[in-house]
């Protein structure tokens, strides 16, 4: 195979993988938001802290903690017992855990000794019990020092929680990549065959790939900035709502689960309620805007896929191709098709930034190679 033809095929594959990696990224963002993925992992993290057995998750007690007055206001139950609250502070988490202990009193958090007394009533061998008792001992009765130690420990816990979340997200991305590759018939073997056999298709795909490679960044190829700005605004609004809710909860104490509120000394309950309502409205508006921008981003990605289809490259199932593949799954052609789909899936799972960098690198090599070939042809005339 001619060297330039090989470069053109690699360019074409890079462009295909780039576009479908963008599709997978968009799908992952939608699924993560729809299922409150970060909130689900927070719930699992709390369950692990409450479980005496390292290999088990105490989901029942985790749900009880999330339903406590100290955390319930942060979100509402969602799919599969998830909560919209994705982040909590160390102090709030401790309050939620200890509020479920027998003998709990609302003024228990004013003294380190009383916090330790409640912690000692938690189930033996549960990680949160050991952590709280250790922190109380090291604080030596100093509440401010205890809070600082608690925050430092919680930072480590959150880092681990984030690592779990990212690891599982990679599994989700691989699964989505396989789904997209099969659903759209993104077959690496067939794509290579098409690009090798049809110079016109290859030329059209290369022109599209070179146009993408000439852009400075992947954002210039598919503009993510409106969606990212909307997401940042939504996260900022969520943080503001969380702060407003915490301030309101600190000001208003609810006795025995009754609706009667007793404002704490030195705070304006009416003003805090007004601020909370404004933050809640802003949160809902930012969430609606995020949905609009995500849809617009999906449309831009669809436009790139349509441009690829206009090159003449055949991607997608046609006629009885799908049923023929399923029927002949164990045949030589069926195995070849399966291998082509799996190659595409794992390539797509590497992510759009990876393939954009590969695209630019191959395009720069091809430009040099093309010029050398042109000079050689001119010298031979």
Compute the separation of the termini in Å: 23 Å
Total beta-strand segments = 2
Order of helices and strands: HHHHHHHHHHHEEHHHH
Task: Outline the low-pLDDT stretches.
Answer: 76-83, 253-261
Helix content: over 70%
Helices and strands: which structural class?
Answer: mainly alpha
The overall pLDDT average reads: 82
Shape: elongated
State the major sheet.
2 strands, antiparallel
Short synopsis of the structure:
This protein is mainly alpha-helical.
Structural description of this entry:
The chain has 381 residues and is an all-alpha fold. It has a domain at 37-141. Helix content is 72%, strand content 2%. It has 15 helices and two strands. A two-stranded antiparallel sheet has the order 1-2. A hairpin with a 6-residue loop joins β1 and β2. α1 packs across α7 (143-183) and α9 crosses α15. The longest helix is centred in the middle third of the chain and has 41 residues, at 143-183. The chain starts with a helix and ends with a helix. The model is unreliable at 76-83 and 253-261 (pLDDT under 50).
Helix and strand layout, with pairings?
Layout: H1 3-34, H2 37-50, H3 59-66, H4 90-98, H5 112-119, H6 127-139, H7 143-183, H8 188-197, H9 199-213, H10 218-221, H11 225-251, E1 252-254, E2 261-263, H12 269-309, H13 321-327, H14 332-348, H15 352-380
Antiparallel strand pairs: 1-2
Helix pairs in contact: 1-7, 1-8, 1-9, 1-12, 1-15, 2-3, 2-7, 5-6, 6-7, 7-14, 9-15, 11-12
